[in-house]
Amino acid sequence: MPEKKPHSNWRAKVHEIIYEADTPAGKLFDIILLVAILASILLVMLESIESLDEKYHMFFNVSEWVITILFSIEYILRIISVKQPIKYVTSFYGIIDLLSTIPKYLSLIFVGTHALVAFRAIRLLRIFRILKLVRFLSASNHLATALKASRAKISVFMLAVLIITIILGTVMYLVEGKDHGFDNIPKSVYWCIVTLTTVGFGDITPQTPLGQIIASLIMIMGYGIIAVPTGIVSAEYTKHTKDDGAHDKHTTSALPPHPSTVNTNSQSCANCLASNHKDGAEFCYKCGYQLHHD
Amino acid sequence: MPEKKPHSNWRAKVHEIIYEADTPAGKLFDIILLVAILASILLVMLESIESLDEKYHMFFNVSEWVITILFSIEYILRIISVKQPIKYVTSFYGIIDLLSTIPKYLSLIFVGTHALVAFRAIRLLRIFRILKLVRFLSASNHLATALKASRAKISVFMLAVLIITIILGTVMYLVEGKDHGFDNIPKSVYWCIVTLTTVGFGDITPQTPLGQIIASLIMIMGYGIIAVPTGIVSAEYTKHTKDDGAHDKHTTSALPPHPSTVNTNSQSCANCLASNHKDGAEFCYKCGYQLHHD
Amino acid sequence: MPEKKPHSNWRAKVHEIIYEADTPAGKLFDIILLVAILASILLVMLESIESLDEKYHMFFNVSEWVITILFSIEYILRIISVKQPIKYVTSFYGIIDLLSTIPKYLSLIFVGTHALVAFRAIRLLRIFRILKLVRFLSASNHLATALKASRAKISVFMLAVLIITIILGTVMYLVEGKDHGFDNIPKSVYWCIVTLTTVGFGDITPQTPLGQIIASLIMIMGYGIIAVPTGIVSAEYTKHTKDDGAHDKHTTSALPPHPSTVNTNSQSCANCLASNHKDGAEFCYKCGYQLHHD
Amino acid sequence: MPEKKPHSNWRAKVHEIIYEADTPAGKLFDIILLVAILASILLVMLESIESLDEKYHMFFNVSEWVITILFSIEYILRIISVKQPIKYVTSFYGIIDLLSTIPKYLSLIFVGTHALVAFRAIRLLRIFRILKLVRFLSASNHLATALKASRAKISVFMLAVLIITIILGTVMYLVEGKDHGFDNIPKSVYWCIVTLTTVGFGDITPQTPLGQIIASLIMIMGYGIIAVPTGIVSAEYTKHTKDDGAHDKHTTSALPPHPSTVNTNSQSCANCLASNHKDGAEFCYKCGYQLHHD
């Protein structure tokens, strides 16, 4: 139910800054947002290093509050400037944006408690701010399409891998047993996954000749069947790049378009949040709401 | 020799439930079967964890009996409802279905013995129940075709890998010797497979400069020739997806069809077990036996 | 200079048995040869296991002599039955066939000496007998073509990998130093190859934060650039399979043709050793020498 | 501003020797340069092995001086013979050529100091001489094009990998904690990269069941998504080899053309350093300067 009445001017302005990357103010906003996200992630990571936290605890705390307040303002502005706030709040980005602000406020409540693990977990929720970066990945539509197209086959492949590892894990548990680190079937299956995926930590290794022969088979199998997902994505990808020949030739040989320099795709409707509008489009292709307000 | 006489009504009904996934009863049966298989596998895995087994031994035992009896009933019903029981019993699924029930009954016989290893091995045979899941993988025909088509080349590749690892394993045995963990040629070959497949456990590592140089060569070789199986499957796969263009475009962009929602392929003949019947087929394409009994 | 005079009947017969796989005698010869090679390789491997060698030394020694004499006879027969023995002796197979017999005879000469390393090295030369298996790999012409076609690009890629590992190895030597196992540049480069190829033994690992950051870069790089050889071989392979469409569709979906059942390719000229003759060819396409002698 | 006045004869001669690989003198120069680079790299690597350095310190020092003086002469000649020395000096090759000579001279200045780390770092700068080899890699234009074309997508992929590892690294830090080696988030992220890229050092491994389950997911994910860069490069590469069919068929089946035998590409303009001139070109395609001076 798109309401067509022109909303107040400053809300339109805010929408333009936040959602449209092709104006100077929009560009600036994007850059500030990017820097804030990266700084925030760096803060969470450095805070977890004990020696650094002891030294710079005050600095970390203040910076964290600055970033939290910044993100809070962004969250409120996004809600205000969008026509259908509920839709935004319940969207993927809406949840991520909320998660970016809440943990620090919650830390005020839990300040006196000694429930360290829960507290730490909540504080670390801030790391999910990195998902705000996904907004800047919109250039990778092509890649996502190929991945989505091969999702079914990759699922089947993954299930096949799981079946193989469970059977071979059980066999290895029987052959090697508790004495050589294969304590129980789940652990054996874990080892089997470590080996089949060619990771090979080496914390558990087969010691008996028979165990080593089976391990060799698992390794060669893992080395061989890695070809399967690769072949699938490769074929899927080749097909997709072929479908839109001319267009593709243009995009692939260019640098990843900087979010703020792309004229298409870069703005989303203030009413229904739909993006990927045509170049120079005046109205949203989905709900007919007017796009540009100059 | 297909006998065409109409068999008793309840046997037809049972066949419909078990073998045809497109009726409500058939769907329910598939879902119960799926849950039973997964529960059964989980049970076998959890039982192997000693601390859990001590605590919940009674619960594990009862659950196992419930599942075993369930699978036994399924096995008997499958035999009864199929026209040619021998064919089913000796088929891949027939053997898997038998293996799913027998171990628990055998445990009654071996209950007093102390032959722990044999007993454990028999109990663990239950893990092969996971192969019952293969029935649900019928959607992956495309993948299997590509794999089967490149089987010959992958075999040649595997043989080449084996020849390389045996020769280089022997060389490493000579260079590093017993003092650095390369005790004998089979162990050296095992190490060579671990290295070439880029698993790299690290339980045995070359210590001499010459050994490390040879190891580097093996690793770079392994890193390079992984391209070969990938290239093969990739090319094979591209060819197959190209052969049936229109049809493929439809299937690849869809979710993996849930076993109980696919209308084709989902039922098999009560007489000869042939599946992959055409949509709406009335008679088996192989033996002419009537398919639907409504 | 092919001499056209008909050679003695038994030499023609021997040639037929050894070089032509499409007669019953030829098939039998191929099977015996295959078994002898595999038994011989197994012997060399088992002999290297000390505990087994102590127990079954006598048995190993006798078996080895039987196989050696068998290979010697084969070698002599091959020389006799071929028109241009020099050509055969200096060919790849000729050298491998010689290497298959000589080590055991040399062990008679060195029997009294204590030069263990040299002696062991000579004995282990027998492992190269496995290369006699290459004769049975003739079905993989297609694969070899794709590999040969991408040889140039893979060489360039390997050189690039080497340059990267030498530079990054030096940097890691500087960053981590002797205290963390990066004793000298060659060892650092070795570690770098272990890491870039995603083998990851774990015998040497970076301990400093900076070292771990650089290691992360190396790993991600290694994970990414593995795509390069794969892409090359894949593209090369796709091209080759496309060139001979109809023919390929036939071969790829079949099992690897057993050496003794293929009618083409399976015989080589008694005069110039050329193989890959056309089906039903009467004369060698290279030197005009008559092929069949029935 | 290309000056067209004919420069002195000996400078033209020097230019021909250094920049043109298709004259006997040019070929000889290339070979000497190649040997000098390889010898120099070998020297740096061997010097870092303490036991060797103690024994052959004198020899290493003298050899290093010989090579340094040789490279210095080369550098000066390159500057003299080129029309626009500034352009050369500030180019990639110009900087590498300078870096190849300077470290040894700097060692004279720091000879008395005890600033070992700085001194060692400067001496090790010589390893960058290996980049002089890049000049010989000009045959790999095709490969570089495919890589450059997929650069955008690979960047997006790398960013996605980074986002995944940071989130999962934080989760693992929470699950496993300090007691099992996951001291802080950066270290957890490092472990996550080690695991996702299937390197798997094994210096840090998950110990709790939950940690091992998450680790299994990371490994299977890493095993699966390696298909993505491979698919991209593969598709990109296939497209590029298809674009120039006839030409490609010729180059791919040939050996990598030796730098000194290629008639095209092998000479660069004395005025503007542009290379890749057409076969038999008389004037530079970029600045019109005369190419051959015979």
TrEMBL record, chains A, B, C, D:
<feature type="transmembrane region" description="Helical">
    <location>
        <begin position="156"/>
        <end position="175"/>
    </location>
</feature>
<dbReference type="Pfam" id="PF00520">
    <property type="entry name" value="Ion_trans"/>
</dbReference>
<keyword id="KW-1133">Transmembrane helix</keyword>
<dbReference type="InterPro" id="IPR005821">
    <property type="entry name" value="Ion_trans_dom"/>
</dbReference>
<protein>
    <submittedName>
        <fullName>Ion transporter</fullName>
    </submittedName>
</protein>
<keyword id="KW-0630">Potassium</keyword>
<keyword id="KW-0407">Ion channel</keyword>
<keyword id="KW-0406">Ion transport</keyword>
<keyword id="KW-0631">Potassium channel</keyword>
<keyword id="KW-0851">Voltage-gated channel</keyword>
<keyword id="KW-0812">Transmembrane</keyword>
<feature type="domain" description="Ion transport">
    <location>
        <begin position="27"/>
        <end position="243"/>
    </location>
</feature>
<keyword id="KW-0813">Transport</keyword>
<feature type="transmembrane region" description="Helical">
    <location>
        <begin position="58"/>
        <end position="82"/>
    </location>
</feature>
<keyword id="KW-0633">Potassium transport</keyword>
<dbReference type="InterPro" id="IPR028325">
    <property type="entry name" value="VG_K_chnl"/>
</dbReference>
<feature type="transmembrane region" description="Helical">
    <location>
        <begin position="28"/>
        <end position="46"/>
    </location>
</feature>
<keyword id="KW-0472">Membrane</keyword>
<dbReference type="InterPro" id="IPR027359">
    <property type="entry name" value="Volt_channel_dom_sf"/>
</dbReference>
<feature type="transmembrane region" description="Helical">
    <location>
        <begin position="213"/>
        <end position="233"/>
    </location>
</feature>
<feature type="transmembrane region" description="Helical">
    <location>
        <begin position="102"/>
        <end position="122"/>
    </location>
</feature>
